[in-house]
Design goal:
The chain has 762 residues and is an alpha/beta fold. The chain has a domain of 370 residues: Alpha-Beta Barrel (TIM Barrel). 42% of the residues lie in helices and 12% in strands. The chain has 27 helices and 21 strands. An 8-stranded parallel sheet has the order 1-12-11-10-9-8-6-2. A 5-stranded parallel sheet has the order 17-18-19-20-21. The chain has a two-stranded antiparallel ribbon with strand order 3-4. The N and C termini lie far apart (82 Å). The protein binds glutamine and zinc ion. Glutamine (GLN) binds next to loops.
């Protein structure tokens, strides 16, 4: 039997982000729906043909989406939340986008991260009486569309169990009670696909690589027992090992199973053993989540091993959908040849898959394999990657370097005696509004229309203005505003060694939003100070202590494409040392308060709970390594922009930042429970101003939030700040909001001081 080359999904945004342009033009009312649909169809056609030309036998369809594949599933099932007023029938284009983006009369649905990727999906909102009905023919339509081009595709659906597991049950009812309601719709879709000529359908059930309870495992057998009889089902797992879900998986009556052998090569033996011999075993051997050329001989070895264990009922494919990789390396015109030789984007990965399948079928392209081995081999020894100085320094790191030797209690007393801050000190998270004017300045500077001196002078003027304004309104710890930064990772990546930036290595983050993560290709070090100059400049304009602002090592790691030739923790430690150098330089320059943002610490958590500890151990250590080079009198802040802390609170405390600011205003301080029951020892600034909304909070609301915070925190512990940076907001909102925030702090402060003077009045 021939071993087939397969793909699980292709990026839909287009190599030039055509989908973004078309969607946003439609949203802005600048072009009609037809235009958007035409662009979408041409992208699908282009991508199918690219895959066909690359020699992929099983080309996916319905992997395309105008916004998100989970939202597509919501539309397929007709699971439209009530507030959108859908009364049945097909989900229209505008209703579809309304669910994603909100409408005047109905707020958007929630969005959250797709497993441990940076892709966000729309969270299904269900209740016991959500009315389900087949409400779009998208899967069948796109299958036929490809058929019309002469390509028989393998339609992709998000499986029912993953769908329900990811849903939010609005009424707290049992999600599995809904399974019998959605299965008939899946059956309908499968039947229609079968009638249209689909031989295979790929059901994505990534939830199988997470920790599952008995009810979820039962749901698998219930669901798939009902889905037989139509096209053959390839049940796709990805993002890790199936582990203790293997028995559940192997017992399902499906025609084939896909497993991720990039993240979990070790599972091959067990999976092959458990899977009945007549089933297809689909091998995910090409990494769908990075930008590196694969070591093809490793892939060959895995396929050989699989053949020994399972025979030749095999598919070869990527570990997961290629949607998490950038589209095409050929669009990079400025990368130098050596570096470029190490890379493979989605389009190039197709070539790797097909080369492996061909080789397994006795048609090994020896030239291709030789070139691959040379490219991969050259990375192992390249001087651009390996910097002995960095490695020596890392080897010399001692545990005490990750420790602020003085305990918090003594540190904070020392800091307070120097800083003399009032109770409930006010500050903000770092960035101030990045106005159109500032963005235009930067654009002109980058295009060469403005020289460096003029650009920096203009930024200094803006910064000076911001400093004077913060003084005027009475912010205790002002920030310089981060006007010189366009992105909190890119800004540092551009100044660190070991990073490279691309022109078009975009990946979809959510909807039309794409990100272009830097590539960490080599040992990381900091040639010179990155932020000291800006801090100094800002401090000139005020007598109050200006915070130094840095991005933490874990966040830089998390928001980059990371090298695959050493562990993530190793790379993170290198970044930590570079940031540590900056922290020490800031202190030398006279900075008293330094904030090291770890916005992405939580999203680095592994999918499986038992792996959390190992991650948190090194992540926390990296933060501490970055933060601990300073004297006890220097105050270290950190910031995290989310509100789920319950399960990582001990690790957050172990970071031992003197002050942490977090997001809380939306959840009305609920998260503080975590901090209260744990008795978080250090200082905290729970956000009192929701910066994700254009709404300006009133002084009264913020006072109320502070009062709530004081129920669980001591006044000595409490800081007053917004939820996150203000760069996406306009001054029209920020001005009144911060004025009100300072007033709220002052009011509560006055009450506290009065109570202290006359305790009987409390
Ligand atoms: N210091 C950054 C800012 O204020 C933090 C942003 C973030 O946490 N995402 O913009
Ligand atoms: Zn934030």
């Amino acid at each position: 039997m021939t071993i087939l080359a397969t793909n699980l999904g292709f990026p839909r945004i287009g190599s030039h982000r055509e989908l973004k342009t078309a969607t946003e033009a439609y949203w802005a009312g600048k072009s009609p729906a037809d235009e958007l649909l035409k662009t979408a169809a041409s992208l699908r056609a282009r991508h199918w043909v690219v895959q066909q030309k690359a020699g992929i036998d099983h080309i996916p369809s319905n992997d395309f989406s105008l916004y998100d594949q989970v939202l597509d599933t919501i539309a397929m099932l007709g699971a439209v939340p009530q507030r959108f007023g859908h009364t049945g029938g097909d989900v229209s284009l505008d209703l579809y986008f309304a669910m994603a983006r909100g409408r005047q009369d109905a707020p958007a649905m929630e969005m959250t991260k797709w497993f441990d990727t940076n892709y966000h999906y729309i969270v299904p909102e269900l209740t016991a009486d959500t009315p389900f009905a087949l409400s779009t023919a998208k899967a069948v339509y796109e299958f036929k569309e490809a058929q019309y081009l002469g390509i028989t595709t393998r339609p992709v659906l998000i499986g029912p169990v993953t769908f329900l597991t990811l849903a939010k049950m609005r009424d707290g009812s049992d999600r599995w009670a809904l399974l019998p309601k959605i299965i008939p719709i899946y059956r309908q879709v499968l039947k229609a696909l079968g009638e249209a000529g689909a031989e295979w359908v790929q059901m994505d059930e990534p939830i199988l690589v997470s920790d599952l309870d008995a009810a979820t495992k039962d749901a698998f057998s219930d669901a798939y027992g009902e889905l037989t009889g139509g096209p053959q089902i390839l049940l796709a797992t990805y993002f890790g090992a199936v582990g203790d879900n293997l028995q559940t998986l192997a017992a399902l009556p499906v025609a084939g199973v896909h497993v991720d052998l990039v993240r979990a090569p070790g599972q091959l033996t067990q999976v092959a053993k458990a899977l009945p011999k007549e089933r297809i075993l689909s091998l995910g051997v090409i990494n769908g989540r990075n930008i590196w050329k694969a070591g093809l001989t490793d892939g060959e070895r895995l396929i050989e091993e699989a053949r020994k264990l399972h025979g030749d009922k095999l598919f070869v494919g990527p570990s997961c959908s290629l949607q998490h990789a950038p589209v095409d390396l050929d669009t990079e015109t400025r990368l130098d040849p050596e570096l470029r030789g190490w890379l493979a984007f989605a389009t190039q990965k197709l070539g790797e898959i097909s080369a492996l399948a061909n080789a397994a079928n006795g048609r090994r392209d020896n030239d291709y394999f030789r070139e691959n081995a040379q490219a991969v081999g050259s990375r192992v020894t390249s001087k651009r990657i390996h910097d002995p100085a960095v490695q020596q320094r890392l080897a010399a790191v001692t545990p005490d370097m990750a420790e602020r030797r003085t305990p918090f209690k003594d540190r904070i007393a020392l800091q307070q005696s120097l800083l003399k801050l009032p109770l409930l000190p006010t500050t903000s998270i770092g960035s101030l509004p990045q106005t159109k004017e500032i963005r235009e300045l930067r654009a002109r500077f980058k295009k060469g229309g403005l020289d460096q001196a003029a650009y920096e002078k203009a930024l200094e003027d803006k910064t000076a203005q911001a400093m004077r304004w913060q003084d005027e309104i009475g912010i205790d710890v002002p920030v310089h505003g981060e006007y010189e930064r366009n992105d909190m990772v890119e800004y540092f990546g551009e100044q660190l060694k070991g990073f490279v930036f691309t022109e078009r290595a975009w990946v979809q983050s959510y909807g039309s939003r794409c990100v272009k993560p830097p590539i960490i290709f080599g040992d990381v070090s900091r040639p010179e100070a990155m932020t000291v100059r800006w801090w100094r400049m800002a401090q000139k304009y005020t007598g109050r202590p200006v915070k130094g602002m840095l991005t933490g090592p874990v966040t830089i790691l998390q928001w980059s494409f990371v090298r695959d030739d050493q562990s993530r923790s190793e790379t993170c430690r290198q970044i930590a040392l570079a940031i540590r150098d900056e922290v020490v330089d800031l202190e030398k320059a006279g900075v008293k308060i330094i904030q090291i943002d770890e916005a992405a610490l939580r999203e680095g958590l592994p999918i499986r709970k038992p792996e959390w500890k190992a991650y948190l151990d090194w992540a926390v250590e990296c933060f501490r390594l970055a933060a601990s080079g300073v004297a006890p009198a220097t105050q270290i802040h950190t910031h995290m922009c989310y509100s789920e802390f319950n399960d990582i609170i001990a690790a957050v405390a172990a970071m031992d930042a003197d002050v942490i600011s977090i997001e809380t205003s939306r959840s009305a301080m609920e998260l503080l429970d975590a901090f209260a029951s744990f008795e978080y020892p250090n200082d905290i600034g729970p956000g009192v101003y929701d910066i994700h909304s254009p709404r300006v909070p009133t002084q009264g609301e913020m006072e109320h939030l502070l009062d709530k915070a004081l129920e669980v925190l001591s006044p000595q512990q409490l800081w007053v700040n917004p939820d996150c940076g203000l760069k996406t907001r306009g001054w029209k909102e920020v001005e009144p909001a911060l004025v009100a925030m300072v007033a709220a702090a002052k009011a509560v402060r006055a009450r506290l001081e009065k109570a202290e003077a006359r305790p009987e009045l409390v």
